[in-house]
Every structure is written in structure tokens, then in C-alpha cells.
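Example 3.
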Amino acid sequence: MAITVRIPTQLRQLTGGVGEISVEATTVGEALRGLEADHPGFNERLFDDNAALRRFVNVFLADEDVRFLEGLETPVTDGQVLSIVPAVAGG
Amino acid sequence: MPTVLGLRCRECNRQFPDEALHVCDFCFGPLEVAYDYDAIAQVVSRESIEAGPRSMWRYHDLLPISEASPVDLGAGFTPLVRAERLGAELGLSDLWIKDDTANPTGSFKDRVVSVALTKARQLGFKVAACASTGNLANSVAAHAARAGMASVVLIPSNLERAKVMMTAVYGGTLVAVDGTYDDVNRLCAELTSERPGWAFVNVNVRSYYAEGSKTLAFEIAEQLGWQAPDHVVVPIASGSQLTKVDKGFRELGLVGLLDSVPEVRISGAQAAGCSPVATAFASGSDAIAPVKPDTIAKSLAIGNPADGWYALDVIRRSGGACGSVTDGEVIEGIKLLARTEGIFAETAGGVTIATLAKLAHEGVIRPDERTVAIVSGHGLKTVEALSGHVGPDHTIAPTLDAFDTAVGFEGLLGA
């Protein structure tokens, strides 16, 4: 499946300033880990030492937080959009 | 003398310059303003503060702002009232209410927005934007108008009518989004990457914004005669206010305004329909699982609280607790505060008072502790919540007979 990953400003230094990357993957985890091949540096920023998502990294598949889905195991379908979003304060 | 050292990642301690950055570009941890407390101690004193304006800006030396004239509607220095009647009902002999309903737009958000827009203007931004559950929307729109800045405010489309009107009236751009606050917030986080020329107060200038909440602690200590209380009860939405109240008390010790860094127990209050921090506290867990909010306390309806971990850390370290209350208890909390102290709080205040009552009943708050409950927003913002709960006791014809029949003489004074 080819899906689009949206890259936040904080990580665009790894993509040469590009805000969207297309990757081949069948799950959310595969898509995120797939970024590393062409853009080294993603893995250590997105994942902690246990290969879990860092706690301030939010990932949304088709606008739904993947923690409400199946996390990194969530299957993806062709053409879906995955967004990496830093946590923000508010109220 | 520069007193701000820059920004520092709370997760990995990497250093960043004093600019519109909010997230560590390595680990995504939130950035926090770091100060040179020795330098601040050189310039600040109880006397210098007491000679300042009767607003939060009397603590200018403890805020991350170098310019002399802030974007200011007069936020802060709100009443700290001794709550004897409420205390008597709850069995607390030394209870106080920090009445932040008295702020210019009716909530504590004026404190954070005044700092955020002052910093945004200093950094050259012309547009102030935010995602909001309502109170922040009101305050950003008002302060932007005051500063002559454009504003773009995004809110969930199901907000209380008063909060919508109180934002729209100031003339900025108001966008209602079909979704929860967490949806709006995620949209704003993405927009921040696409609109680098805008100051999103709770996103890219959040590091400064959040500092405004420290003034709650500064004021409480000053208004108690430069003494810290024993226990403070704070509502939790994103968790930012609670962590900054703790930071504020500690800073008073670090810069010599109090004799030492005080030990203040900090307890959190959440609505049961959106209680990720209270749930983690109760289970002893370090992980905060996000939830889909379902509560009348919309200003606290953040299912994915950005500072939840830090709030939990503060609560546990300080020996506090985190309680949650049902919507019915929220209504009773609003009515109890109004009936005993004459203060009309919004639903978030109802959450705080109901949690205060619960923690007092459970003995978590000891009867003789000097306890302060922070009531963060005005009841006029959320009057819908009281529909069917309060209203006229009688509706009568304009005659004495009708009055005597309906009300009579007895019962009013307990006679």
C-alpha cells in the first residue's frame, strides 16, 4: 500500500523541508519505520529504546489517534494519510 | 540584565534559544523557559512587587518578557477570599478560594494569554491564533483586539453559546470545527507547520504562554502575607496550570521571596467524563491513556492532556491526590460555592469544588490544612449547564395575595 505521511516542522530538517512523504507499508509501524531508509534520523526521534513511540509523539491515521486504534499494529490501506503531530497544550 | 537563559526540553534537557519554539526537535518533548534565578534574586523583592501594578504584571521579573509594556487588559491579582461558610460545610477550618472569575474575560486564561501575546508581539508576529475549549478563545480574541493584532480562533462547534459570542464579539476570525477539542488541537498543531507566520498561543508560543499560570501561585503566597499554603486544589485540562502553580511556589523560594522552597501539596480535579490523569493516579500507573471526553465541563474536556505526565509527577511528589467527579456533582459544586460564598463558577469551578469536597470527605485534605481551591472561570460562560437545576421558585401574578400564597413569611430566615 502506498500511503502519505505528513511531517511536522520539527522533523522537516530530515526531509529536506518536505512536508509529505509517500511510503509503502501495511501497518502504521511499518510506515513510520519505513521513513528511516531514505531519511535517516526518524527512528531515534519517533521511538524510544523499547521501540515504542515516544510519549510526546502523536500519530493520527485518517485523523484518528492510533492509540484509539491498534497502535503501531493498525493496518493501513492504499491512499490513507498518516500524520505525525507533536502534543500541544491548551484549553 | 537578561534573566531568561533560553528554552530547555523537559524530556531530554537539550537547550534552545529564546524564540517561538515549543517542541524539542529531537524527542518532541515540551520546551520550558529556563531562568537565571540568582539574577532574578538580585532585582526582585517583596517591596518591588508590592510597588508594582495591581495585576499579574507586578511579577514581571518572574515572567519571560523583557519589554516594559505588556499586552494587558488587567489580568490577575484577583481576590483570594477566606471561605468560612464553605469551609464549615466541608469541615475545613482554613479554606480559601482564589477567585479567578474576576479576570477581564472571566477566566485564568487572561494570565497566560497576556504573556503569550506580549511575547508574540515582541517576536514580530502579527496574527494570534489558538485552539480552544472556550476560555482561551475569549481571551485570545480580546487581547488580540487590545494589541491591534489579527486573531484566528478555532473551537469545537458544540461549545457553550456564551463562549462563542464572547469570542466573536472582538472581531477576529472564529472557526468552529466539527469535532472534539482534541481534533481541533491536532488541526492547530498541523496548521502551525503550514502557517509559520502565526503565533498559536497554545502551540508555538506555548512555552511562554504556560508561564503565565505561575502568577496564580505568586498571588496566593503574597495575599497570604508571603506564606505558601499547605494544599492547593487545581483543575486539570492539559495539566499545564497545575504544573505551573507548583513551579511558581518553588520559584518564590528560589529567588528569596519566601524563606525557602515551600512544600505545597498539589491536588488535581477532573470530571469523570474526562479523567485520564485521575485514572492514572488511581491505578498507580505512569502511563496516561487518552480518552474521548464526555462531560459538561467542556473547558476541561481534553482527552489527551499534553502535560498530564508532569501534572501526575507533581501530584505524587507533593503528596497530593487527583480526584474526579460526575456531572451531577459538578452542578452541586457550582451551587454549593454560589450558596456559601457568593461566587458563581463555570463548570470547571464546579469540578474543583466538588473534588475539594470529595478529598476533604476522604480525609486527603486534613481539616486544619491551609487549603486554596482555584476557581478558574466565571459561571456566566456556562449557564446552560444549570438549566433545569436552578431557576425561579415561584412565578406569580403581581399581587400581595399571590406573593403571600407562594412565599409567605416563613421559611426564608429559618424562622
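The longest strand of chain B covers residues 150-156. The mean pLDDT of chain B is 95.
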